[in-house]
## 1
Amino acid sequence: MSTIEAGASRSVDPAAVEYVFEPHAVELPPIKPYLQELWDRRRFVKASARAEIQGKRSSTIAGQFWAVLDPLFTAAIYFFLIQILRGGQGGRGSSYQMTLLISGIFLFQFTRTSLNEGARSVVGGRGLLLNSAFPRALLPITSVYKGLLELAPAGAVYLVIHIAFGRPIGSGIAFLPLLLVLHTALNLGLALLFAALTVFMRDVTQLMQYLLRVLFFVTPVLYPVSFLPPAVRTGMAFNPLFPVFVAYQAVIGGGVPTNLQLVGALFWAAVFLVVGGGLFLSHERAFALHV
Amino acid sequence: MNELSPSTSDRDVAAEPVAISVENVSASYQVRKEVRLTTSLRAGFRNMLEGASSARLIPALRGVSVTVPKGSVLGVLGRNGAGKSTLLRVIAGIIPPAEGRVVVRGEISALLSAGIGFNRQLTGRSNIELGALAMGFPDERVNELTDSVAEFAQLGEYLDFPMRTYSTGMSTRLGFALATHLDPEVLLVDEALAGGDSKFKQRVAEKMDELCSSGRTIVVVTHAMRQLKMMASKCLWLHQGKVIDYGTPEEVIKQYLRFCRLEASSEDLDEE
């Protein structure tokens, strides 16, 4: 007979499962069984993220075409904005900056969705939380996965723009999957951290919009990193999004990310996964008492 | 009326394998006063400080013990705020006990008062899928489950409509159908028997009979005394988080109704 301490899991033989629920202590659950439970419920993450995206667009006429229309319109707006700011003057560097800007906005949107929706995921999932026992980390994971799903069509739109502008595709493209993994891990760590904080302090959801706005401007999204004076660039070491976005810019420009950028991205992803994951998992049993 | 610890007093139960064991469980919720909005800065600060210092622990269960043998039905009675739903949530592992211990043998499916956490913006189909997947239901059987739940709940073409378009009865039917079709070893039902029309109530009664006869363990919270008398093996009466009585449905319901009448008449006297 398998015994599961303070959780809900499923074994092959349901009758052999035994659950033991004892007073909540602020401590991490056994990590391996917890990860196994998350893995067993991976289809929940996929189905929930897809259903949310579909639900949001189900009453619109364009329906699922919005998945492509959204990034297309965003790109068009920034294209015209840049044209106006430059007084209609293109110039040699403009296509480079345009691709950096559009890719940066799409990639930052992934972080925005992960943090905004991730922070609200537990409080917003009150109905499910109070009626089912399941590993609560599924909720912020779903928000990050939703951001990733929305990034896919944006990526396709960007590829067309990249080619249309005649930008080169360098060997740095091989680093893109690694950068996406590090970016996703960082977003997940941040989503877990803010989801847990929101349960105990609802003000976090109000503060989130300002935090995201600050991050948007202090991260190289609207400008190439080369625009920043060296002193400012050193200060940016404290911005967790900085290394991964600078590495993206290197790849978009046809180059290769430096080791420092990759190590920096890995460092921040690990820090937030450990801090955010630790805070979330050690407090998740008490969430139902506070939502 | 006697206050007792059912787990030690119920001798019939000792021979049966135990499905649920609730041992001296207490549970509390933390509540906080809502911060009132005001146009005055001074009152605003005062409200903010009051809100921050107003956290209170509200005891919902106090030293509750009960044992439910495998394949039996426990009915839980009590007035609003007695701790009935909290007891179900503690058994389901949703709320941790503040004291004591709960042991449950077998898979649990909970149908609690708010449904299975339905997202009303999503379709009935999506909600069935998500409810089942969150409970760890095997992927490959989700489609089959969706069909049988939709058929039982008689949703028809509404299965692919957002749940915000459903009537209360349709949501209730869907919640009950989902909880009972997840094939649980232990089923926790809260007030679900009261919803739906007479035809659906008949189907509910049949489904509950089927689950009882197939050896499932059920804990049901309801005010439907007649149904409780028919299906429950034992009844537990909770009042202000404490066990007041435990025994056969006839005995406990009789005591409970006498208490309700006494309380009603004392309220009448107060009013006079």
Note: Residues 1-14 of chain B have pLDDT under 50 and may be disordered.
## 2
Amino acid sequence: MAHIELQEIRKTYKVHERPTGKWSVLKGAFIRNTKIVQALGGISFSANQGELVGLIGPNGAGKSTTVKIMSGILTPDSGTCLIHGRMPWKERKAHVADIGVVFGQRTQLWWDVPISDSFQLLRDIYDIPKGDFQVRSQELALALDIEGLLSTPARQLSLGQRMRCEIAAALLHRPKLLFLDEPTIGLDAVSKLALRAFLKEENKQTGVTVLLTTHDMDDVDALCNRVMVIGHGQLLYDGAFDGLKEQYATYQGQDIDEVIAAMYKELAL
Amino acid sequence: MSRTLKACRSLFIIRVTENLQYRAAGIANSSISIIWSILQIVIFTIFFTLGDATGAAMTLTQAITYAWLTQILWSIVGYFTVDAEIREKVINGNVALDLCRPLDLYAHWFSKTMANKIGRSAWRSAFTLIAAVGVPAALRLSPPVSIEGFLLFLISLCTGALLCVAFAMLMAAVRVGLTWGEGPTYMLESVGMFLNGNYFPLALWPDFMQGFLLFQPFAGLMDIPFRFYLGLLAPSDAFWVIGLQIFWVVAFIAAGRFLLNRKISHLIVQGG
């Protein structure tokens, strides 16, 4: 049985608009125009345990909405989504105990306390047995090279250091599924490469499914054995990254970003 | 459930210790408390000496003590704004991260609010208390009326603190999902600020309002504990008065939970 199964997921947002033209500010104070914006127009896909899936698409395409629905934060308007046999938004607590989440632009570490205190807290939150916690935190600290940072408060870390700690924090409870939302945003080349190598190894060792959204095509190229393109709330491509390159590259050895730009253009995204 | 409890306990401890780091902020805040108390005491003194105080429900000494108690315990039972950290999360969308924890959101935020309250008030309360017993005798805080009174004061203060957090949580639930700011929570807050005795002891309000004032929920925050301290409520009243406090705690928790769960199911977190 597939480990992730999405069927016909739809989600719309209400957007308020101010009227334009003369007296618009005044009018806008009394009349509000609401517009319904479609974020997801019926997305379906499935994935198996241990896959490394990249979700790509331009800004505003619906990637984050998809991830938020799958992590139980948003309730879709219609459609079904089963992850480990659960509907994320219906059994939120049970669902999130099995997943790990890293949002590149938000931090989940406690800002003013040492990283090790954050880890202890996560141990209590996820109810990780003491022995396993010891083993796991040491193993992650070693693999991500953060042993020296554990006694530093999160606010004093550089972005690259913090991101490695975030990833460790998200993996402490051995989730079966890991969501990474732009994990390499703002990282230097060394950190990026280290992070990719780690994720690849982690996937091989523990069989964790990784779902990655990113704008960095090198991330996708280096990590993912499967890529999905989302645009206008639809799933436009689902398959190997090489296939995508073949389909849209105009010449051999063309820059990946150019290929993707050509694809977005062709799909009118 | 036990997981939630355990996690909330750790969250509570980590937040309290984090807040205790800010001693300078505590000193700064206590100076506000001290100036405010003295101002209130001056006003009470003018009214009690120049006006006709016969038949007043409180003596001047009691009013002075009430003013000090208000300020010493202000952070715990006088102040029920939505927790700053939670408000920030609501505004910047980090609620999303809290939703990714296998915890009951209400319990999670409740312990966070309580921890921030206690952690932040520790220094402030300590410094204000030192000032309250260190000032000249005419302005000084008096000791509690009796040992029973003091014990009941402590017990009802604990219930009051729970009530305060339960109310702050109700306001947090109101705040979640509002894109248009603090208006509704400010309105609720100012009602509470008047009705808890923060500005003016409830016993000094007109007689015909007394029944209402004692039964409304905000009396349980500071006025009821202070009445035990001053001896305005007899120990024999403890049973029903503290029962009333507990009733309001339960009511606020039920309302807050209901509203928060409803809001969360319709929640939209914008942006990448």
Note: Chain A is about 40% helix and 25% strand.
